[in-house]
Design goal:
about 150 residues; mainly beta
Length: about 150
Amino acid sequence: MVCESRIVFARNSKTDAIKLTAGRQENTPHSKGYYSFDNYITTPRGIDEFGYEKITKLTADYALPLFYPDINIPYLLYIKRIRADIFYDFAQINNGTDVSNLKTAGLEINFDFNILRLNYFTFNIGVRISRIIKEKKYDYQFLFLGMEF
């Protein structure tokens, strides 16, 4: 069973917003002889994926543009926007035997650009810095098209 809901609040300007997300997923344990599906609800940003039976996740994001540089290298590259996303993630994960509370907070910086005069498709690359609060360590990820690498 999976349930997820998102609410986006536009702020005073048209370009920044606050996004709140809540989700819950329950999987039938693989040990009971049932097929276990992939996780729909991910672990908090900065924490590696792992299997679980139940997860409840809450996230808060504040996204805003930082600059509109309009940098153009003719026929090759056009940088449209540099934007930031400040986030906080909380998840309670139940593995059947123990319950873990995972918390992360961090910042994403993304560059939106067009290449080779393909104006109808915007690419983006960026970096994510996550603070894993319980372990008191940082995680760094490279982002391409909103995906982690």
